[in-house]
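Customer escalation, tier 2.

The customer says the design service returned an amino acid string that "doesn't look like it belongs to this structure." They asked us to rerun it and document both sides in this ticket. The original structure tokens are below, unchanged.
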């Protein structure tokens, strides 16, 4: 009996795996098509504010995929698919180009663009980056590339690219900081300009004094090592006030603004 059941369970499991793989394959194909079509994939921009003055400092470019049948699909879900399908390079170039063009219309604002570690490991990445800057005319000082802490911990081979990027005058930020378990010692040796505190710590402020202590310590360490610091996921006034009080430089979150299409930012800045 037990044996028969086990077999059935296993057959069920195989069917489920089949379905999952077919689904993923389907999405991969859809994503390739979407990239070619260019109307399903759009770049949104989320405003980032100076904590001290509460004035606009710049934007983060965030990809959106409006799937014709499934509706919006989160980048948390489709970026890994793009990475595995080998199309993250094309997707990354698309975002970069759009973001630099938008930044040219939005003077004095910085533009942060998320970069996959796979792009950063590409030998030609620096050249492609320079080509986009040349084509759009954006000053490198206005561009910041965000790489996740976890990716940086597992990669390691992109040090030369990172160095070249920073030599060009482009800044680099460690994204989702605090989730990748870097040792503090390691942080002082990674060549970046900014760290972005992951939103889960900011969201923990209400329940946990540990999260507050942790963020306070990260801010202190960042400043001691001359790193700028941004907090993401700021959703309410209490979080904003605490972050400002401990000296966090930039703030980003729904408390200020949600990511919006370029046309909305155009309208906002025209006012
Ligand atoms: P991320 O780079 O850490 O971006 C911040 C995420 O937090 C965004 O999610 C943003 O919409 C969300 N967020 C901002 N403020 C708040 C808030 O107050 N509360 C909450 N709950 N969330 C907030 P999104 O747009 O879904 O992007 C998810 C992740 O996907 C990004 O995290 C980034 O890792 C990745 N991603 C997005 N666009 C790109 C891209 O163009 N290239 C690459 N490689 N990755 C991207
Ligand atoms: Mg980011
Ligand atoms: Mg982040
Ligand atoms: Mg994130």
């Amino acid at each position: 009996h037990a044996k028969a059941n086990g077999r059935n369970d296993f057959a069920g499991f195989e069917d489920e795996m089949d379905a999952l793989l077919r689904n993923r394959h389907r999405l991969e194909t859809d994503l390739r098509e979407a990239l070619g079509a260019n109307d399903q994939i759009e770049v949104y921009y989320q405003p980032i504010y100076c904590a001290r003055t509460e004035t606009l400092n710049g934007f983060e470019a965030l990809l959106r995929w409006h799937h014709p049948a499934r509706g919006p699909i989160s980048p948390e879900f489709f970026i890994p698919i793009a990475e595995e399908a080998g199309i993250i390079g094309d997707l990354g170039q698309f975002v970069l180009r759009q973001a630099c063009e938008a930044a040219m219309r939005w003077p004095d604002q910085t533009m942060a663009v998320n970069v996959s570690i796979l792009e950063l490991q590409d030998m030609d990445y620096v050249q492609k980056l320079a080509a986009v800057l040349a084509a759009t005319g954006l000053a490198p000082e206005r561009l910041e590339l965000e790489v996740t802490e976890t990716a940086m911990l597992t990669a390691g081979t992109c040090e030369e690219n990172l160095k070249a990027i920073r030599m060009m005058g482009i800044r680099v930020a460690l994204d989702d900081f605090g989730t990748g378990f870097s040792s503090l010692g390691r942080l002082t040796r990674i060549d970046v300009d900014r760290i972005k505190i992951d939103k889960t710590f900011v969201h923990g402020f209400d329940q946990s004094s540990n999260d507050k202590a942790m963020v306070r310590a990260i801010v202190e360490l960042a400043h001691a090592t001359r790193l700028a610091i941004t907090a993401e996921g700021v959703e309410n006034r209490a979080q904003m006030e605490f972050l400002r009080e401990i000296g966090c430089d930039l703030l980003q979150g729904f408390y200020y603004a949600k990511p919006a299409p370029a046309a909305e930012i155009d309208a906002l800045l025209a006012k």
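Tier 2 assessment: The sequence is consistent with the input. The pocket of C2E (ligand 1) is lined by residues 46, 62-63, 74-76, 79, 95, 114-116, 146, 175-176, 199, 232-235, 252-254, 259 (CB under 6 Å). The mean pLDDT is 91. Sent an explanation to the customer and offered a walkthrough call.
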